[in-house]
Each structure stands twice: as C-alpha cells, then as structure tokens.
C-alpha cells in the first residue's frame, strides 16, 4: 500500500499537468473500484478547472472550480500516469488503452491522466470542498507529520498511557496521518526503539525525539521518489529509489548497518504486519 511519500510523489508528478488546467474530457470505464463511483462523476468533472492539487494522509485531493473536490486513493495497485505533457516533463506519448485503465482525464493542455488499477482496491469520490474535512475518510485522521500541528508536545500527549506497542501506535492514522509500515520500521530503527515496546512506557524525551526523525525519514523518501515495492510507480511511470536506503525494512537475516553492530535484522509479525528491527540497536 503506498504510504505518504509515495502519494506525495504522485501528487507532485501530477501537479504540473493538472493544476490550473481544465478537465476537458472524463472517461469512467466501470461503475466502481473499491466502492461505487459517485453518481454522474464524469459529467460533474468535465469542463471544470483544477484549482489546486493537495494531499491529506494517503489521499490526493483535487479542488475544482465547481466547488467540489475529487478524492483519489491509490489502493494497493493503483497508478496515476501522465502522458502527452505539454511542459515536456514526460517523454511518453499517449499509450494505447490498457485493460485496467478505469478512469481517464483529458486535460485542456494536452495532458492525459490515466488511473490504472489491476486489483481495484483504489477509490475515487466527489466531496463538497467546503466540508471535505468532514468526510468519513478524512475526519478521523490525525495531524500531518510534516505539518505544524505535529509537534513533540502533541506526540508525547498522544502516546502517554497507551498500552499498545509503539509500532502499532505510530501506525494509528488517528494519531499520525499517512505513516505506514515501511517508514515506521525505518523511524524506530533510527530512534533505537524496539517495535515491541509499549508506547506509554517510553520516556518523554525518546518520544519527543521521534518527531524530527519521522520528518527526516519522510522527507528523504519524498526526495528519492518514494519506495518502489511491487506495484508503485511515479506519475511519469518511473520507479522510486528510497528502498535502496532501507536500514531494516525487508532486510531479515541481513547484517545491521549500525557502526560496529554485527547483529542480523529480525522480522516479527505485529497486528498482521511484518516488523523489521535490530535486536541490538533497538531497545
């Protein structure tokens, strides 16, 4: 599942072709993905300008001049691909339609935006822009980890007294929006915290130190274009490269990168997800 850096990478790739442009044509090739498309979606999008393209957690939000916002979730295998970009940032001509091209936007600047999703776990919805934050998917989210509302004092208060493992607490979207399995594993390694530690038993100073580490890990991943594992591709169809910088994720049995550490990375399962960590460096 794409995490915050992957979604932000896609948003940045789409912005030059979508922001300020009019959706000249909208083609919806099936009635649903993870759930049904909103009624008349193609007609409601067609002819409207994209005022801004933003991200909230793992969702891309396109604010339109109609007063509606298009919500896009990539799911497990969803890709937003750009072709025919008039700005010359992409070398791809418009490709031949593929089986899983479920939604296609033709922009008035000549760009084509294709949502391809073989597993159909992605989703789209149309929201009233003025009340978008009240949508059931957005209203339950915690602060953005790269935003001002996410601070040392906030995280200390949010984790205080929690009896759940720190790994599970950081994955809770109601505490922090957008963090996923990969980047929590990497964060806890840099912080030297064992993923099995109870969140409420970690000293405030160590919890506070997580905030800049989380920001650093996410910022580095965005700069590298995300992590291309399995299905993820950037909007230009290319791979992200942060997976080449992993310290622990998906490195079970390999030697720890820590200075002077000869331990091997271990994998355990927590809440149905793999946690990778160094038993020596993480306490």
Concise structural overview:
The chain is an alpha+beta fold.
Can you walk me through this structure?
It is a single chain. The protein has 283 residues and is α+β, with helices and mostly antiparallel strands. It has six helices and ten strands. The protein has helices at residues 4-18, 41-45, 152-159, 166-171, 181-191, 204-223; strands at residues 23-28, 50-56, 59-64, 68-73, 79-83, 101-107, 112-116, 123-128, 266-270, 273-277. A four-stranded antiparallel β-sheet has the order 1-6-7-5. It has a four-stranded antiparallel β-sheet with strand order 2-3-4-8, covered by helices on one side. Strands 9-10 form a two-stranded antiparallel ribbon. Helix 1 crosses helix 6 (204-223), helix 3 (152-159) crosses helix 6 and helix 5 (181-191) crosses helix 6 (204-223). The longest helix is centred in the C-terminal third of the chain and has 20 residues, at 204-223. The two termini are 28 Å apart. The relative contact order is 0.15.
Which secondary-structure class do the elements indicate? alpha+beta
Tally of strands: 10
Low-confidence stretches: 230-234
Shape: elongated
Largest sheet: 4 strands, antiparallel
Distance between the termini: 28 Å
Strand content: 15-25%
| Count of helical stretches | 6
Name the average pLDDT: 90
Report the order of strands and helices.
Answer: HEHEEEEEEEHHHHEE
Helix content: 10-25%
- Rg for CA atoms: 20 Å
Strand order of the largest sheet: 1-6-7-5
Features:
single chain; 283 residues; alpha+beta; four-stranded antiparallel β-sheet; 6 helices; 10 strands; 23% helix
């Amino acid at each position: 599942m794409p995490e915050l850096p992957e979604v932000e990478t896609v948003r940045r790739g789409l912005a030059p072709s979508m922001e300020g442009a009019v959706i000249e044509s909208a083609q919806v090739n099936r009635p649903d993905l993870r759930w049904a498309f909103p009624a008349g979606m193609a007609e409601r999008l067609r002819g409207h300008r994209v005022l801004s393209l933003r991200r909230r957690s793992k969702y891309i939000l396109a604010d339109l001049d109609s007063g509606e916002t298009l919500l896009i979730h990539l799911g497990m295998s969803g890709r937003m691909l750009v072709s025919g970009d008039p700005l010359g940032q992409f070398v791809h001509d418009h490709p031949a339609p593929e089986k899983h091209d479920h939604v296609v936007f033709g922009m008035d600047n000549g760009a084509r935006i294709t949502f391809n999703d073989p597993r159909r776990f992605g989703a789209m919805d149309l929201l009233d822009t003025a009340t978008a934050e009240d949508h059931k998917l957005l209203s339950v989210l915690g602060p953005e980890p790269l935003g001002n509302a996410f601070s040392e004092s906030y995280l200390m208060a949010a984790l205080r007294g929690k009896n759940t493992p720190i790994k599970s607490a950081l994955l809770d979207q109601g505490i922090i929006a957008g963090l996923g399995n990969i980047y929590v594993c990497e964060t806890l390694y840099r912080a030297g915290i064992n993923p099995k530690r109870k969140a409420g038993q970690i000293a405030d100073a160590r919890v506070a130190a997580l905030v800049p580490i989380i920001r650093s890990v996410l910022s580095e991943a965005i700069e590298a274009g995300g992590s291309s594992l399995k299905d993820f591709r950037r909007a230009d169809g290319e791979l992200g490269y942060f997976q080449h910088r992993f310290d622990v994720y998906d490195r079970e049995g390999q030697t720890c990168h820590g200075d002077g550490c000869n331990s091997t990375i271990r994998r355990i399962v927590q809440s149905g997800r793999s946690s990778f960590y160094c038993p020596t460096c993480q306490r």
